[in-house]
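INTERNAL AUDIT FORM
Audit reference: QA-55
Scope: verify that the stored structure record matches its stored sequence.
Auditor: D.O.
Record contents follow.
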Amino acid sequence: MDAIFHAIRVFFEHLAAVEWRPLGVALLLHLLRLVLRTRGWLAILSAAYPTERIRWRGVLGAYVAGVGVNAITPARGGDVVKLYLVKRRIPRSSYATLTATLVVETLFDFVVASILLLWAIQQGVLPGLSVLERLPSVDWSWLVRHPRLTLAIGIALVVAAIVLVSRATRAFRHRFSEGFAVLREPRRYLTQVVTWQTASWACRLASIYFFLRAFGLDATARDAFLVQVVQSLATLLPVTPGGIGTEQGLLVYVLGGGATAVVSFSVGMHLALVAVNVLVGFTAIALMLRTLRWRRLVTPEEKTA
């Protein structure tokens, strides 16, 4: 972590060298990416609850609120906020169904991220296990050093999930399956979900490209793809908020060049995105709940009784 704190100091010492126009474009593309994703989630929710009137602005607010909380908390805590806020906008909804819609919402992401990962492996740019465990700031290197135990833990989690699902009540399984309703209409899924998410991915990669330009690094499509692959790997096990630490260690290896410049770029991009996500996310929470008090978020019934 010392390298990261050093990079943060270097970043603030060289703020004058940041190109603000590309930075502004990158942040606008990031916000557009979030907006586009909410259109896809709206379609998934509408398929799950065809008789309900679901407003897009409520879905938008819940989504960006979750993104804002995820920016500062580990283990995807913001997803709980997404579910809580969107449930308030769909009175007859259930958490089982809403959770399933989030799973559907990430299916296309898994496909695209897997394709990019396979491309990166084919390019031979990712570190091997022997290198990975020596990289600084990689917070899940312990898992790499203990592959058998990691595999055993993974199998145990899968088995536990299967057991929980098998023992769930019929009503719960029915509610959970409702979240996958859009997948039973392939044409609707492709036209109302995948199209929006494809546009969102284009904005994501373009945003990375402009971040690279803003921080004075080589800006090519290949580098943007590599940064995205690293970000996906860093959030695979969200031990830290946004995968910070892991991301910086991997980027130094993948992009090469000056370690300080690369880590400063990564930290600078991370700080900029966190600032925007927190600002937009907590503004959404304030507008939707009319408060930022966490006790109100947890026990709304007591406050509105």
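Auditor finding: record pair retrieved intact. Confidence is low (pLDDT under 50) at residues 239-243, 300-305.
Action required: none
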